[in-house]
Amino acid sequence: MTAPATVAGAAGATPAAAADRKIVAFCCRECAYAAADASANARTPLPPSVRLVLMPCTGRVSPLHLLSALAEGADGVMVAGCLLGQCHYREGNFNAVDRVAFVQRLLKSVGVEPERCQMFTMSAGEPPRFAAAVREIDRVIGGLPPLPRSEAGTRGAA
Ligand code: FES
Fold it and tell me: Which of 31, 53, 126 for mutating ligand 1's site (highest number of atoms within 8 Å of CB)?
């Protein structure tokens, strides 16, 4: 079992308060959500910042899902799916890797930290790997300042 990729937080950033930050995790049903479920059943403590969204496959996650979550209040987004080569829909997670990389480039081009969007992979039988992924993105997002938004970009704005 390997640990999730590490991304350093922005140097000198004013961290978002742990209670305030929000991370949306798009999880494929077959592996990541199953690992999350097993993790919850084992009563593994997880950061309260993470909200799970059940997806049939990470191949169903579009850049629009990720950007909309960030635009509507999330400080970070993660996509969690099956191990590469083990997607139950063949190539869904390879498509997700490309889309996450696309969103990272897009964020960087507009001056937003690309590490706010990350991809993780795991098998259904690896709840500790899911927990490690969630803790990792919580650590990274916790090291970044709150994501600034214009009034027009926030939910409920006139
Ligand atoms: Fe898990 Fe496709 S079914 S990533």
Answer: 31
User: Position of tokens 């970009």?
Assistant: 153
> Ligand 1 pocket test: which of 88, 95, 97 has the largest number of ligand atoms within 8 Å of its C-beta?
88
Q: Does 154 fall in a domain?
A: no
Q: For 72-106, how does the pLDDT look when each residue is reduced to its tens digit (9 = 90+)? A: 999 999 999 999 999 999 999 999 999 999 999 99
Ligand 1 centroid, distance to 112 Cα (angstroms): 28
DSSP letters, 33-61, are HHHHHHHHHTT----TTEEEEEES-GGG-
In angstroms, rounded to a whole number, what is the distance separating the alpha carbons of residues 68 and 153?
A: 10
Task: For ligand 1, say whether the CB of 57 is within 6 Å of any of its atoms.
Answer: yes
pTM: 0.85
CA angle 44, 48, 52 (to 5 degrees): 85
Residue linked to tokens 């190539």: 91
What is the domain count for the chain? 1
Structural domain for 126, as ranges: 27-143
